[in-house]
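Hey, I'm writing a tutorial for new members on how sequence and structure tokens pair up, and I'd like a real worked example in the thread rather than a made-up one. If someone can provide the structure for the chain below, I'll link this post from the tutorial.
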Amino acid sequence: MYFEDYKVGMIFDEEIEPISFTEEEIIEYGKKYDPRPIHIDKEAAAKSRFGRIIAPGSFANMAFWGQWVKTGIDMDGLVAGAWLDGGQWIKPVYADTLYDIKVEITEKKVRREGIDGFVTYKLTAYDPDQEPVLHYEASGLVNYNNK
């Protein structure tokens, strides 16, 4: 999609494949990037308020975002990410749980008329009860389609 194709309020959900993670994936990432006991130590995590290993927030953010990227919807016009805004980790993200993802277009700003602009995407991930587990907004620099 190109800048002119985006409309504020557009929602992408059916296009995004649900995702789950293994405990091993979470632990491996945690050991490398966020080695807190709730992410890497099964015994410590079992004694925590979460009752078991939970995914680091950065792992969850990128894994859910990756599902959006895999759709290829924004591939043609996107130049690069520009900034992140307003993220929240609402509920823990657990292994062996299937999460649904929704992306909503919340804002568009022309940067250079006819050349490019910023598009803001609000990503929300949902647990099997359709309760949100996290959300954040990311803005990207997107080209116009100058055929």
